[in-house]
Amino acid sequence: MSRTVAGARVLITGAARGMGRLYAERAVAEGAKAVILWDRDAAALASTAAALNERAEPGTLVAPFVVDIADLGAIAQTAQRVRTEVGDPDIVINNAGIIRGKFFWDHDNGDDIRPTMKINSLAPMYIAREFLPHMMTNGTREARIVNIASAAGTLSNPRMSVYAASKAALIGWSDSLRLELAQQGYGQVKVTTVCPSYISTGMFDGARGPLFTPLMTPEYVVDRVWRAMLAGRPLLMMPWTVGLAKALRGALPLPLWDGVAGAFGVYRSMDDWVGRETLAPQEIQLD
């Protein structure tokens, strides 16, 4: 793929605010053919679409779609609308996600566990399944799928059990999909799995990064993800301590790793988490 998304159709979930909006702004600035915005917040989505339209060149279509990806049936319905009204995307950025910062026994099955697994794990699979056939049969035109996972999917952490499970599932599926596409001759479709530590989006307000792992800015993360996506990079972990921690977790005996993680503050990083004040306690949407 070229160094920009010029001429491509780009679909972004959780696009109304935060990092999702930053990805959309990047696509508009680079002259994408269409920037397809998915979000459940109709008012925020309309505001973002209006702002993007002011920046967009005449050849760029900004196409907002109100959809709650926790409703898995709505994904197929909205995907059909996208195909009909805009055309199949060349790039899909599975950005939306939620977290419940609780001990596992405080999770409710219906209000906590099910939506976390749906939004963080199942929805990216359903969305990719809708648009992959076109990507696979579109000749030599390169395509991209970007799955925003988390460092939490590589390491266990208190108060993140369900979130960590959902991101571990996303990582396992995402990298397996990458391998399947490469092995079966669909090398034009590149899958990038992203595993960041804490980002200062409001989603992790109050969280404390472990030693040598400061909170990253959304702008920094979006820039790194964007460049990795264009290059077709298979895995992006950031900062460097995420990869180091993963390696140590695999190499050390578990009791020794627990001691190291405790000393570095990994297991206390969510003790003071509050999340965004604008949403209900314990429930944050990553947009």
TrEMBL record:
UniProt xrefs under Gene3D superfamilies: NAD(P)-binding Rossmann-like Domain (3.40.50.720)
Species this chain originates from: Cryobacterium roopkundense
Pfam families: adh_short (PF00106)
GO molecular function, a single term: oxidoreductase activity, acting on the CH-OH group of donors, NAD or NADP as acceptor
Keywords from the UniProt entry: Oxidoreductase
Family: Belongs to the short-chain dehydrogenases/reductases (SDR) family.
Transmembrane annotation, as ranges: none
Protein name: 3-oxoacyl-ACP reductase
InterPro entries assigned to the protein according to its UniProt record, in alphabetical order: NAD(P)-bd_dom_sf (IPR036291), Sc_DH/Rdtase_CS (IPR020904), SDR_fam (IPR002347)
